[in-house]
Amino acid sequence: MIKAIQVGLGFWGFDWTRKVLPNVPTVEMVGYVDANPDALLRVQNELGIPAAQCFTSLAEALKAVDAADLVIATLRTEAHFPVVCEALELGLNVLVEKPFTTTMAEAKALVALAEQQSRLLMVSQNYRHQPAPIAVAELIGAQKFGPVNMVSVDFRRHAPTQGYRYWDFPDPLLADMSIHHFDLMRMVLGDDPRRVSCRTWNPAGSPFAHHPVGLATIEFERGTIVSYRGSWMSSGPVTPWAGEWAVDCSGGEIWWTSRDEFLGQSGSDRVRLRPLEGETQDVALVAPRYADRLGTLASIAQAIETGAIPARFSSGRDNLFSLALVQATIASAMRDGEWVDIDEIMA
């Protein structure tokens, strides 16, 4: 049993406390930390968390609990670096929400510190833990239709009518949403990006302070080109959260979508094979034992307990490339779509 302390009980942290932490039986929660006393009172009053398990600092929590193995960092992005740094220096493993950090320098420093401390650092890339992308990664890895030539990804949502709340978030598409899609590109292709060209804009009548719409062309190391279109202001048909994907291969197309609550079942996924010759067929998907955020938490718990790294584990080091892709698209957009090499961002 892995003993864990959660740090960060705000809007999204509270959601973790309520929906995720009680549902992974290999993790025992021994502490909850937030500098805001009101946040601590909320989890006590609404979720029945004992006051004896609530603390205003990680150091205070560690003095009070018998033992702890893991910190679950569910704070705002700009607070990730100091909290993760403190947890690693105190000898704890860390699961941190995405985006990993605000800068590549911070991310690299945390990766180096984790390795120096011989501790696990994982970024909660929860979209990896869904049946469709897992199946597609396996199909592509097995060369079901041969080499991949091109990938098209579309994400469409209309934020003003769907409860979006972060109108002042910098780069609300690329940093807050596209990070999921960029990370999935790396996972399903089993490849890393080489360079990117991106344009973003803010349409008339938008409540966003920054650009919620964008187009990107991403070239991967093995030559695959990904065409990406994303919009928080789309008036078109709503896509699932993971978007709609068409993977064009030499012998056919793999079409898929994931995290689709509009099919009447939250998280329902679809994968469809379209060979050059023959009939289109749906792939029977196998649901993972723990999906989405539960999957990330169960994954790091398994890694700590067994010492073996599970498949599709989003370590801090691995996630540097997903963060670099976000930073490269933002840099390209600021340069009016100029090609930006990933090496420039990783340097």
TrEMBL record:
InterPro entries with a match to the protein in the record: Gfo/Idh/MocA-like_OxRdtase_N, Gfo/Idh/MocA_oxidoreduct, GFO_IDH_MocA-like_dom, NAD(P)-bd_dom_sf
The family database entries (Gene3D superfamilies) matched by this protein are listed as:
Dihydrodipicolinate Reductase, domain 2, NAD(P)-binding Rossmann-like Domain
Q: Which Pfam families match?
A: GFO_IDH_MocA, GFO_IDH_MocA_C3
Where would I find the GFO/IDH/MocA-like oxidoreductase domain in this sequence? Answer: 135-247
Residue span(s) of domain Gfo/Idh/MocA-like oxidoreductase N-terminal = 7-124
Tell me the SUPFAM superfamilies matching this sequence.
Glyceraldehyde-3-phosphate dehydrogenase-like, C-terminal domain, NAD(P)-binding Rossmann-fold domains
The entry lists its GO molecular-function terms as: nucleotide binding
Question: PANTHER family from the xrefs?
Answer: CONSERVED EXPRESSED OXIDOREDUCTASE (EUROFUNG), OXIDOREDUCTASE
Q: What is this protein called?
A: Gfo/Idh/MocA family oxidoreductase
Organism listed in the record? Arsenicitalea aurantiaca
